[in-house]
Protein 1
Amino acid sequence: MNYKDIITNLKNKKFENVYLFYGREYYLIENTIKVFKDSLNEGMIDFNLDIIDGKETALDQLISSIETLPFMDDRKIVVVKDFELLKGKKKNFSDSDEKSLIEHLDNIPESTILVFIVYGDVDKRKSLVKKIDKKGIVFNCDKLSDMDLFKWTKKKFETNDAIIENTQIMYFIDQEGYRDKSSEKTLSDLENEINKISSFVGKQNKVTNEIIDKLSQKKVENDIFKLIDYIGEQNASNAMRILNDMMHEGESVLGIFAMIARQFKVVMQVRQLQVQGHTSKTIAEKLKIHPFVAGKALKQSNNFSDNIIVEILNYILESDYKIKNGLVRDTLALEILVSKYCQRKIS
């Protein structure tokens, strides 16, 4: 059964007794939880929806929640997130606890729907995983197939009231690289890009390849590389020009801060690995980043000491707090970053 069929069944209130959804595509997992919630009587949801932290719960608490009958609704939904027995860990549970829970799955009340959620991989060798698969549904929320991705992307642009042809949808998907084997992009990342492009063109306006190129994440990443290069070269005017262009094209200040911080963390990691004798190629493999990114980080490491990078990261962290609490204007915080670190020796 594919993801679409599962969601269709849930919306039609055709439920299994127990489910396990796992994987790296958190967007699909969160959407599944939402569909389960929407199936309940909204006025009684506080009584009939239990969301349990699987890392903290005890067996008796979990069983008590499962056995509690729904209140003024046909069903009760119990969502257990990151349950350790599904990941091959036994910090809080004994072998007898695991056996007891497995046996209990045969006696779940018909009015209870038990949903296990794991953000990441599960240990498929575990008896609990095998039992859930036998009794209900186990589904890996992995990347969408090419066709499903196309349909999903088209629908998102349409929801934003942006006009886009099929050719441009394919171009957008190709540019984002979501289906690349080494890509860590998620549907949430793609949705952010779709929202940014839709906002830029405005309602009932057409999305072109030129606009996709102008706002693509690849361009943003290249702009971040350039920005850090200019800061390293103490070229304040060009650094400010890059910043202004990025903000004009719709990038948020907090987003820019996050990308700067991420790149500086990569710079520190590649320098460490280089000292250990690794080549640019093996560094890219170890960090699971593109060789081009590894190469750029190695060059940038020549312009920044570890102490300065830590100082910049601390500044970004403090600025994030101040911006969110209204203590400083976001654009001013960015301008101060550029000004401060372009006026001092950074090597």
Note: The first helix runs from residue 3 to 11.
Protein 2
Amino acid sequence: MLNPEKWVTLHADYLFNYTISRINNHDLAKDLVQDTFFAGLKAKDNFQGKASERTWLISILKRKIIDHYRKINSAKGKAEVKMNFYTDGEREGEWIEERVPNSWDNAFEKSIENDELSVVLEQCINNLPEKYAMVFRMKTIQQFETEEICKELEITSSNLWVIIHRARTQLRKCMEDNWFRN
């Protein structure tokens, strides 16, 4: 059962931290979290209870983040097209290929590829069993100390390392199936 009245108290910090690690823009991160809450309110009748409230909100937030990157990349593409044509004279409408700097080194394509890789990696992490995903994120992404994780999750350090190993094995398989073979 959803409890929208408590979303800000229960989930805002978590969603913000999740967003800021992917967007790296404080104001935009706040806006995306706010958009997530609004979208959640609009879609609350579609909540089936198959996931926790937070997991459901994260899935909405992920789509907001992906939409943000698509919008940016689309705007950049349109700007690039406008700049890459001669606008007058005998060559009007032709590509200005000789004007493209060689030093760009495909940075835009690499940026898109990194964004796409991040999306696939996040999907793979989300497909892990909940405890595996939590431990993996805490140790590898958020860089918590082993002792902190063990105390918070009430597990032994040897259990933590077994979980990390299993999570990495499953992630490697998922990434091979969903990223490297595409």
Note: The chain is about 70% helix and 0% strand.
Protein 3
Amino acid sequence: MPLTNKHKLNPTKWVILHADYLFNYTISRVSNHDIAKDLVQDTFFAALKAKDNFQGKASERTWLISILKRKIIDYYRKINSAKGKAEVKMSFYTDGDREGEWIEECVPTDWNNEVEKSIENDELGVALEECIEDLPEKYAMVFRMKTIQQFETEEICKELEITSSNLWVIIHRARTQLRKCMEENWFKN
């Protein structure tokens, strides 16, 4: 017996139902409010243009997120191209399950003062961002996509037209260069 419960689109309620969710999803990947707002707006516009192609197999939000993911990838492609350069800022996680994911070693073990912790984390974030900016452009982009924004390996490879082994070589080289930079600029007190 075929399912007749296909999902339907309701574009008049997209902003009310999905804008905050899409914005939060985007801001965690681009770390710039204005760019995140633009990408969400572009997503809604593209969805309106493509609404006749919606087949109802996925929920409205899932469909919008799939469009948004393409917009984010296109954004990173654009800033990586020779046509447009843009400053990409990243957020650093200081608490919770994701703490320390972005660097593999030399994590301090004892923090006694919360104010000092906050100042030190801010300074560490600035030092790490400076080291990332010193990476070759492709290394920085792949490192951000895989390690910070947590794109899937297959998705990065497809979008950048590289093999998975090439991706892991780039990640390894980026981490090695970041470790050296951080040792020279942060840990050598």
Note: The chain has two domains: 11-80, 114-185.
Protein 4
Amino acid sequence: MKLYVLSGYIQEILLVEYPDKLLLLDGCSRADVTTVLNFISNTLSRSPSDLKLITVTHMHPDHAGAANKLRKLTGCNIACAKKDTQWYRGFSGKLMHITDILLTRYVANKMQKRQRWLWYSSTLKADIQLTDGDLLPGFDDWQVLTTPGHTDRDISLYHLPSKRVYIADLIVATKKGFIPPFPIFYPNNYQKSLKKIASLAPSSVILAHGGEVTITNEQINSIQKKAPTEPMTHWRLIQSKLKQICFSR
């Protein structure tokens, strides 16, 4: 198994190579389709059809945005957490979907990335639904861990032989250190998810925003203290900003 960490539009892309197949650990952003295909064809000298599975850890634009397009181009399967409903459901879900795409564009601008096409479907029809403890079909050296908090359907992927774990957005690396992500819809579940990762005692942790790092239990404890005790969502953030403006006046 070879793990390649590629520089994506606003996040790291995790591509896993085996002699006879490829695995993409997350669905990237819509802007990353060409990056993934070019790396497979030009760097690995392999056929795009060697990509057999994409896992989507959650539905945000930089984790699900390229999944449908890559499935169409390569014939791969898509796997995600087993849920009865779509994340972006109803009218409020559609608004949140648009907001998340705009937030992705904002982050890209902060990173001085040129504007790219980011629109993707707000719904995902997965070929495979995953539950806690499952082994990835066709890639049974990877175990699925449910790690909700950021959303209701976040999953992490634990490589059993090497004890490395990809945790997507559970933790974010910044210049000032490790912090919780935004948003956090389920703060209690978020705390449990951090404890689940700490209990693994992984050899390394792979972040969607920060790459492969080593995190100590003390650092995880610090992240837990920084995490909100109430949901920190788009609407609550807007309410907070409006209150600040009103009080300042």
Note: The longest helix spans residues 90-110.
